[in-house]
Specification:
The protein has 205 residues and is of the alpha+beta class. Helices cover 17% and strands 30% of the residues. Strand 13 and strand 14 form a beta hairpin.
Length: 205
Amino acid sequence: MSFESVKAKNPGVKMYLVTDPAFQKYGRVIEGYDFAPYVAYLKEHTAVPESGNQYVASIPEMERMPLTKEVEHYIYAGMPVQVGYCNGNGSLLNAFEYHKCSEVSVGPTDMVFMMYKVEDLSDEGTVDSKDVVAFYCPAGVAVEIYPHTLHYAPCKVEDGGFKCLVILQKGTNGPIEKPANPVNHEDRLIMACNKWAFGHKDSSV
C-alpha cells in the first residue's frame, strides 16, 4: 500500500515519509551502503509469523556478511553489533522502547515506524499518543534510528505483514537483572540489556 493510501486511511495520525525533514529529529536515511544482501536474506530465509511479531536478535549468517564489518566500522565506529530481524503483523501502537545506541533497520517490505522522543515525555514519564509521529519507510530504504528515540516493532502496510532488519550494539535486548532498588523513574523502565520500555496500561509490556 502506498504512502498516500496509508496516510489517507489514518487521517488522525501525523505521518511522513522517512525522507521528509521531519524525520531528522528521530533518525536519518542511510546512504552510500548497499544493504541488498541483508534485504535478500530476510526475503528468502525468514518468514512472517501467522500472528503477532517475532524478534530474533542475532543471525550468524548475516553477521558473517562483509557488509556487517562495514556497519561496525563506520556506522558504529568500531562497536561490535548484532544483526537480527523483527517480522510480524502488528498494526497498532501499544508499547514503546528506546536504546542508548542507534538502531539500523531496512527490509524487503514497506513498513511504518511510530516514534517519539525521550525529551518529549511528560513530567510523569508518559506519552501523549496524539503527539506520536508515524514514518513510512519504503522497502529497501535503510534508516538509522537515533538513541533515545522511542519506537517499537514496525506496523505493517500490507496483509502479508512486514519484515525488518534490526542491527543494534551487541548484547542489546539480552537478559539483565532489573534494578532491585531503582533510583529514579528511568531505572524502573529497564526491561533488558540496553532496553528501556513501557507500554499502554492494557498491554503486556
